[in-house]
């Protein structure tokens, strides 16, 4: 593809992040920087048992402690606040539900669940008093494993349910079992995905101020409008009296979608005390939030040439305790994202979403889609291994042909566009695949275990999910002032990834003004139009789309005004660029046109002095009407990427060292390639962490053992090689600029490519990778298992 | 209310500890985070930052390392092995400037570098208390995970490191950059090999090994190492589990880590061996 260099600030350029200097110089204000007069601090008292009935809560000592203003129990809270509405109600998916309370009333179902709250003058006072709250439990048996939780005699977490399963679903079309029976080879396996977390640098936090019968909540959150509605419901306050403000957010990754008990709780504490109350999550609390944990038992049948005919996969997903947050629903996407970018129309995927006595899963980058890729990419490599084919060739023969888009998958997703073969070619070129295979042979001759792994990832983005807060449209206002400067108010929020910069690029490009004339306002329910915040790689698709429509309206109005002010005829062609309106050899500065319109409107003609527009945008390719198989199509865009990892494995210790990493990424048109790469690097690193070192571990009593960054090992700079990024642009036919969601792609591809590389590195040991994370003890366990299997075979 | 003392001398520090209920803070890299997160709530803190216990003195027979010597000072010193180990301390410049070698010895975390290194160096630790002073050998000092011979009314003043004329080597194994050391091995290579293994057990293991005759990959010598590691582990009640790695894993990789430290020592000497 050849193209002229993109002009600074335009769509496709990479102007610097608008708040980059503020962030780098430490001047950005985050939630914890706000301290209104009269501020009180809250601390949450959490369950010390994994499962138990609350018998008594003695708050006397805490109430008498220094600086304490209020101690609140679940029973007291329930007199003032109703259940927290679900982001995605299990009932809407035919599943079991329970009322989610801001403080538990009768029973706790996981270690760390909120049972009481303390409000005091300082955080230290609140912490000291919280230690004095005495809760007596009738301890019940607990279950920490999903398979065990499905046993008939397992402890029952929610007593009115028939079991511990939220919902069981079946996905897919065709007749996978028959295809397997006809196949030349069938490979099978069990894959375990360990529990990890998102760990944003800024934890969650809320600052609620109840004054003059109005509630203002500053929140480190992703979806201020949904939070306003949820607080309105749980607290019984009309929405018009609630304002949610989301200041700078230090990373979200899905964790800060709402539905957390503390949102209602902190607001209630402010109402009850009549003072501003702030709660900032402790790192140990942040680390309780799970991101993923699943077991897959799969069978894949293929022809001798590597063509895959059918897939059967049974998924058991452990979501911990049920939450009103969106996290419990992620495993649905693990099922529906299969069979990924492969043309396999015969699939049967069974999914059980299971509760255990662990803290809840919270939405997390990847949203379950990551698991689909780990499983599919392992399956493809196993087919290649079984047939002694090159894994790259098996991918090539199974990818959806580029001329078949839009392509309806077996699970019902309608992939808008792509060129998966092109991505594969790019990656193989970048790593010089034939030379790398030779290098691998040479390394093996020296006793080194060098491995190459490929991982394809299909990333459905910008979800529109019926019956939930996951909406596929958004709304933006573009308003030009008399000075020509533009204020953009949008329902889309930024978790720190920089969509404000991308939106400013779009608006400046569409109107034809310099980017620094454009100001963004996000995350304020009193100022911004109704919208849905950030999730599912939606911000540039729906925020960008609605901003485009509104900006075009403003541009049209400018042109209309300019015609009158410049005395042009209807037929004269008018252009706007760099803040100047030009036509027929004459020109006028945009601010002059704006001022002329806004101050002399009716004098210059029959034109209203309104230089703003509010527009909503929903992309195409969304269909909520179930087909004959009950399948819906909630995702308009499908980004794709192909990952290659090169690893060295130390067979004495099991340690995996990453030597090289390449990602070829296709998110259609890139509004800002630098920001796309920034997101992709973050997602890949998150995937690498979950593939190699990160793991939430629980003690037998259900308490979190890995509750700090010395025991929960995020990748550090020294663990990650320079991540090489390549781009392919296959525009989406269904979005405003041809862009697809960007920001999630990388988690699953990284897990898959690393897992495949480790297996490839240890091929001479006969190792089969069946899990992530592949930390050193896990790798030695796999080598032992391979050894035991080969001994068994010899007998 | 927590009592806080910042003594200006060794004598003042000893006096501040006389009640026996104080937590001693050296660099604070372990104790202060524990306090921040409420894992410990000491009745009293004695902060040694001004007690004048830092610094390294050399004489003809070795080095005297003050307990409050930071890793940053240590890594620029000539103290054998300790200077090398200080380079690899995780946490960056902040930790290397705050963390102290004496503090690490007294914290006695199995997942840390210093205890085994002191054992390998045959360091002698000077404990000073109101009842008087005593000098103990490093290998006696470490009693259990997070437990030493130091009484609550004593403080560690100095570590005496005898001169080492022999080549030495070190190998540290971590799960990832952010991980604490899982198994470490420090080797001083004389006629025989003196190797101290950290992390594998609650206390450092001290091994007395044959030199490999045909290189550290020699299967017979590896068997010897495995045997000696297993024996040392059983002497101290087996390997030490922690949240990052089970004891069985540490026991399993310890011989390989020992071999790497030995190879490092022998290579430093002859330039011929390689890991």
Question: What does this protein structure show overall?
Answer:
The complex is a heterodimer of chains A (795) and B (275). Chain A has 795 residues and is an alpha+beta fold. In chain A, 29% of the residues lie in helices and 24% in strands. Chain A has 3 domains: 20-27 and 473-617, Aldehyde oxidase/xanthine dehydrogenase, molybdopterin binding domain (Aldehyde Oxidoreductase, domain 4, 2-Layer Sandwich), CATH 3.30.365; 34-140 and 200-286, Aldehyde oxidase/xanthine dehydrogenase, a/b hammerhead (Aldehyde Oxidoreductase, domain 3), CATH 3.90.1170; 292-465 and 624-794, Aldehyde oxidase/xanthine dehydrogenase, molybdopterin binding domain (Aldehyde Oxidoreductase, domain 4, 2-Layer Sandwich), CATH 3.30.365.10. In chain A, the strands form 7 sheets. Chain A has a 7-stranded mixed sheet with strand order 3-5-1-12-9-10-11, sandwiched between helices. A 6-stranded mixed sheet of chain A has the order 7-15-14-13-8-29, with helices on both faces. Chain A has a 4-stranded mixed sheet with strand order 18-26-27-28, with helices on both faces. In chain A, helix 11 (369-387) runs parallel beside helix 19 (747-761) and helix 16 (539-566) crosses helix 17. Chain A is globular. Chain B is of the alpha+beta class and 275 residues long. Chain B folds into 2 domains: 3-162, 2-Layer Sandwich (Uridine Diphospho-n-acetylenolpyruvylglucosamine Reductase, domain 3); 168-270, Enolase-like, domain 1 (2-Layer Sandwich). Chain B is 33% helix and 25% strand. Chain B is built from 10 helices and 14 strands. Chain B has helices spanning 10-17, 31-36, 71-75, 82-87, 92-98, 101-107, 114-120, 138-141, 219-235, 247-270; strands at 3-5, 22-25, 44-47, 56-59, 62-66, 124-129, 132-137, 142-144, 147-148, 154-162, 168-173, 183-189, 193-198, 205-209. In chain B, the strands form 4 sheets. Chain B has a 5-stranded antiparallel sheet with strand order 4-5-10-6-7. In chain B, helix 9 (219-235) packs across helix 10 (247-270).
């Amino acid at each position: 593809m050849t193209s002229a260099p993109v002009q600074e600030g335009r769509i496709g350029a990479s102007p610097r992040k608008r708040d980059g200097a503020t962030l780098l110089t430490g001047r950005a204000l985050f939630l914890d920087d706000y301290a209104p007069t009269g501020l009180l601090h809250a601390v949450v008292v959490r369950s010390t048992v994994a499962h138990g009935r609350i018998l008594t809560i003695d708050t006397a000592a805490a109430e008498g402690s220094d600086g304490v203003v209020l101690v609140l129990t679940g029973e007291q809270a329930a007199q003032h606040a109703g259940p927290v509405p679900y982001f995605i109600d299990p009932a809407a998916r035919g599943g079991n539900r329970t009322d989610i309370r801001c403080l538990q009333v009768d029973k706790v179902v996981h270690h760390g669940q909120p049972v009481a709250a303390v409000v005091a003058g300082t955080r230290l006072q609140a912490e000291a008093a919280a230690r004095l709250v005495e809760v007596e439990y009738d301890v019940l048996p607990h279950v920490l494993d999903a398979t065990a939780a499905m046993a008939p005699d397992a402890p029952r977490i929610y007593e009115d349910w028939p079991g511990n399963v939220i919902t069981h679903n079946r996905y897919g079309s065709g007749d996978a079992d028959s295809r397997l029976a006809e196949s030349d080879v069938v490979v099978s396996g069990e894959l375990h995905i360990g529990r990890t977390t998102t760990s944003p640098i800024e934890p969650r936090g809320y600052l609620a101020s109840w004054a003059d019968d109005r509630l203002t909540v500053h929140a480190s959150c992703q979806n201020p409008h949904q939070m306003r509605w949820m607080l309105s419901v749980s607290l019984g306050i009309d929405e018009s009296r609630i304002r949610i403000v989301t200041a700078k957010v230090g990373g979200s990754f899905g964790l800060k979608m709402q539905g957390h008990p503390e949102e209602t709780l902190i607001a209630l504490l402010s109402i009850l005390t009549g003072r501003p109350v702030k709660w900032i999550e402790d790192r140990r609390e942040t680390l309780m939030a799970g991101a993923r944990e699943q077991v897959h038992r799969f069978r894949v049948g293929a022809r001798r040439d590597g063509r895959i005919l059918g897939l059967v996969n049974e998924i058991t997903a452990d979501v911990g305790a049920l939450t009103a947050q969106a996290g419990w629903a992620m495993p649905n996407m693990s099922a529906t994202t299969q069979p990924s970018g492969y043309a396999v129309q015969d699939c049967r995927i069974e999914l059980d979403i299971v509760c255990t006595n662990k803290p809840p899963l919270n939405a997390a980058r990847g949203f379950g889609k990551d698991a689909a890729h780990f499983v599919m990419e392992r399956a493809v490599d196993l087919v290649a291994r079984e047939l002694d084919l090159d894994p790259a060739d098996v991918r090539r023969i199974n990818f959806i042909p580029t001329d078949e888009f839009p392509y309806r998958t077996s699970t019902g997703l309608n992939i808008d566009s792509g060129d998966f073969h092109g991505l594969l070619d790019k990656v193989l070129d970048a790593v010089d695949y034939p030379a790398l295979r030779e290098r691998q042979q040479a390394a093996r001759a020296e006793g080194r275990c060098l491995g190459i792994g490929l991982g394809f990832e299909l990333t459905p983005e910008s979800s529109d999910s019926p019956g939930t807060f996951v909406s596929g449209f958004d709304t933006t206002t573009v308003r030009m002032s008399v000075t020509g400067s533009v204020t953009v108010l949008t329902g889309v929020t930024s978790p720190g990834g920089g969509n404000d910069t991308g939106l400013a690029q779009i608006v400046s490009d569409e109107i034809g003004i310099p980017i620094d004339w454009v100001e963004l306002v996000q995350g304020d329910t009193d100022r911004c139009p109704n919208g849905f915040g950030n999730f599912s790689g939606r911000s540039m698709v729906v925020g960008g789309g609605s901003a485009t429509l509104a900006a075009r309206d403003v541009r049209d109005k400018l042109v209309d005004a300019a015609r009158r002010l410049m005395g042009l005829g209807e037929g004269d062609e008018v252009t706007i660029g760099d803040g100047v309106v030009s036509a027929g050899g004459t020109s006028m500065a945009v601010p002059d046109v704006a001022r002329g319109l806004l101050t002399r409107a009716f004098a210059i003609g029959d034109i209203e002095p309104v230089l703003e527009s509010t527009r909503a945008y929903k992309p195409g390719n969304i269909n909520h009407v179930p087909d004959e198989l009950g399948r819906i199509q909630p995702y308009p865009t499908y980004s794709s990427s192909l990952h290659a990892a090169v690893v060295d494995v130390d067979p004495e210790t099991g340690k995996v060292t990453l030597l090289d990493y390449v990602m070829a990424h296709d998110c259609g048109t890139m509004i800002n390639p630098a920001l796309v790469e920034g997101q992709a690097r973050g997602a890949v690193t998150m995937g690498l962490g979950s593939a190699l070192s990160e793991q939430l571990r629980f003690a037998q009593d259900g308490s979190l053992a890995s509750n700090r960054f010395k025991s929960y090992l995020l990748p550090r700079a020294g663990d990650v090689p320079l991540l090489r990024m390549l781009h392919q642009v296959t525009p989406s036919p269904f979005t405003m600029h041809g862009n697809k969601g960007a920001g999630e792609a990388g988690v699953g591809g990284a897990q898959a490519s690393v897992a495949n590389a480790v297996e490839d590195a240890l091929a001479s040991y006969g190792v089969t990778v069946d899990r992530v994370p592949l930390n050193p003890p896990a790798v030695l366990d796999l080598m032992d298992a391979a050894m035991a299997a080969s001994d068994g075979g010899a007998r | 209310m927590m009592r806080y003392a910042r003594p200006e001398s060794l004598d003042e520090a000893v006096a501040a500890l006389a009640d026996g209920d104080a937590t001693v803070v050296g660099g604070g890299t372990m104790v202060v985070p524990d306090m921040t997160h409420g894992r410990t709530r000491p009745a009293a803190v004695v902060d040694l930052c001004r007690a004048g216990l830092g610094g390294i003195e050399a004489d003809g027979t070795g080095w005297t390392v003050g307990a409050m010597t930071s890793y940053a000072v240590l890594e620029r010193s000539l103290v054998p092995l300790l200077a090398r180990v200080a380079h690899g301390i995780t946490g960056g410049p902040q930790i290397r400037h705050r963390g102290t070698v004496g503090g690490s010895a007294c914290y006695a975390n199995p997942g840390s570098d210093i205890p085994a290194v002191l054992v390998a160096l045959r360091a002698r630790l000077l404990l000073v208390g109101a009842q008087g002073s005593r000098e103990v050998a490093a290998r006696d000092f470490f009693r259990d995970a997070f437990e030493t011979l130091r009484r609550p009314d004593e403080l560690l003043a100095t570590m005496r490191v005898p001169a080492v004329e022999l080549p030495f080597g070190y190998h540290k194994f971590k799960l990832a950059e952010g991980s604490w050391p899982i198994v470490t091995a420090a080797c001083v290579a004389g006629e025989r090999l003196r190797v101290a293994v950290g992390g594998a057990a609650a206390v450092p293991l001290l091994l007395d090994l044959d030199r490999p005759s045909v290189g550290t990959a020699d299967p017979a010598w590896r068997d010897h190492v495995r045997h000696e590691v297993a024996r040392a582990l059983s002497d101290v009640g087996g390997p030490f589990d922690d949240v990052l790695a089970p004891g069985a894993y540490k026991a399993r990789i310890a011989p390989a880590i020992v071999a790497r430290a030995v190879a490092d020592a022998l290579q430093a000497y002859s330039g011929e061996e390689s890991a």
